[in-house]
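Example protein as discussed:

>
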Amino acid sequence: MKRYLLWGVLLLLAGIARAYPTLPDPKAPPVAQTPASHGYPTLTGSSGQAVIPTGTTGPLGTTLAADWQTLTPDSAAGFPGRILLSFGPNMELGGSYEVYNNHAVIERAWGLNGKLSTGVPFFGGVTAVGAQFRREIAAGLDTDYLQPYLAWTTRFAPDEDGFSNVELTLGGNWTRITDPMSNVSNGFRGFAGVTVNLSDAIDLMAEYQTKNTALGDIDPIIAYTARLHFSQNLAAQVGITNADGFVGTPDQRIFGGLMLYLGGE
């Protein structure tokens, strides 16, 4: 029941955004007007919120990010590092590498990602298509994840200068998992996220992704995040999520880290 209520509220917000579109310039950053806000990589690599990708791409240039994330079981932790290369306003490529402490089941993981944003207004927002690949290594055995996705992002409730403090993202992904025995499972999940820009320095975010037990989800993925922008080039984030890679676990765990935007020509 809670899931249906959440989707109902998000669809209502999308309807409001459609009635009052505020994305005349798809190249403009959708919330805070700094590279540090709209180029922050997710924990798995694509630009977006903490977990879900958005319909926009990062700013031209190179972005680096590193986080610390507590995991299940207790005392387990991962340390995901990401690099994101953006080529103009509509295209990005990235990579990630994650190491784990001795209490984690996974030893290490690496991934690649890419995203192409249309840059064309669509129902008051912009749309991006992308894909992520992730390989998790445990006891010398590989588990591979391939995840293409579609994301649509809009903003609304603009101030007197035309800037918006609220951003909504809706989308879906299809995930294919190949385990060490070459068994394959796949399935679809929808996702949604809201970002509220409290000031030039603070963003608050909430995210939700539906559960698919065929993909190993025990619970839907949920994340709550605060991002702090210290300058045009430096930001930090702290939050809680039950996401472990692309899978929803039963436990909400803390994560936090830093992002550095190096710029580009």
User: Anything to note?
Assistant: The CA atoms of residues 62 and 227 lie 19 Å apart. The longest strand covers residues 141-158.
